[in-house]
Amino acid sequence: MGKNGRKGGSVGRNTLDVFIGKGTSLEGKIISEGSVRIEGRVDGDIECAGDVAVGKEGVVHSNIRARHVVNAGTIHGHVVAEGRVSLTATGRLFGTIQASALAVEEGAWFQGTSKMEVKSVSRLADAKSADARETKTSEAVQAKTAKTQAAG
């Protein structure tokens, strides 16, 4: 047996590690190295290295931090995803979303604000800024070299 009493080793981001079933209510913080699926009710923050999925019957009053979040139920709180937040046709989200991508199916409800963080664009801007600094430095060195050669 590996970690967590499982055959085959440790929990990964793609492993369903926590399942809160229909009719189950949980109060408290969930921290998981795997993924979390909620069909019941959760009152408390969720920090997850994998994905968080809230089923049709799921109700979550929580701040969620995960790789991806798929909501077919109801979420009240702040949602932060490294990747995508998806709201299915039955999904309801009241709060804020911060993610690289947001998908909202027809029929979904979203009341709040969203902030899209497109990392590739910011990396491109940083690269352009670095190129501009390098060009200015190169021009300054060339000008100094020309002055030195003219004087000597």
UniProtKB/TrEMBL annotation:
Question: What is the protein's name according to its record?
Answer: Cell shape determination protein CcmA
Which residue ranges have biased composition labelled Low complexity?
A: 142-152
Q: Which family does it belong to?
A: Belongs to the bactofilin family.
- The ranges of region (Disordered) come to 126-152
Q: Where is the composition biased (Basic and acidic residues)?
A: 126-137
Q: Which species is this UniProt entry from?
A: Candidatus Reconcilbacillus cellulovorans
Q: Upper taxonomic classification of the species?
A: Bacteria, Bacillati, Bacillota, Bacilli, Bacillales
